[in-house]
Specification:
By secondary structure, the protein is an alpha+beta fold. Helices cover about 40% and strands about 20% of the residues. The longest helix has 14 residues.
């Protein structure tokens, strides 16, 4: 089995609500609705550019899909994640902008955030 580690804002966070409206899918309730035109993009263009994101829902990938080492279990992964989360300080990203990563649009830091880079290394 493969695992991945993602972050998503809680259901009631404004960013989660805005993303769900824009993508046309609420990942918490799985409700869908037709996407709407945005600015100069038609509804069809928005649907095309958000198809992958709509399938997965609004999230940040902390650790891409991986397989557990042979001597590890899902329970040990959960315990390690709990311990990591308890001992890790929040990372503040001052400003996000729209950028592209591997051919898809993403919210990315406007400028380098050393604490975020340290966090990414610690997650791995």
């Amino acid at each position: 089995m493969r695992y991945a580690i993602y972050f998503t804002p809680s259901q009631d966070e404004p960013l989660a609500r805005i993303a769900a409206n824009w993508l046309g899918r609420d990942p918490f309730g799985a409700a869908t609705r037709p996407v709407e035109a945005v600015g100069e993009l038609s509804a069809a263009e928005v649907a095309f550019h958000t198809a992958s994101a709509r399938r997965y829902g609004f999230h940040a990938t902390l650790k891409a899909p991986f397989r557990l080492a042979g001597n590890e279990t899902e329970a040990s992964l959960r315990a390690a994640l709990d311990s990591f989360a308890e001992g890790t300080q929040a990372v503040i990203i001052p400003r996000l902008v729209v950028g592209q990563i591997d051919g898809f649009f993403a919210l990315v830091p406007e400028a380098p955030v050393p604490a975020l880079n340290r966090f990414a290394g610690d997650v791995v």
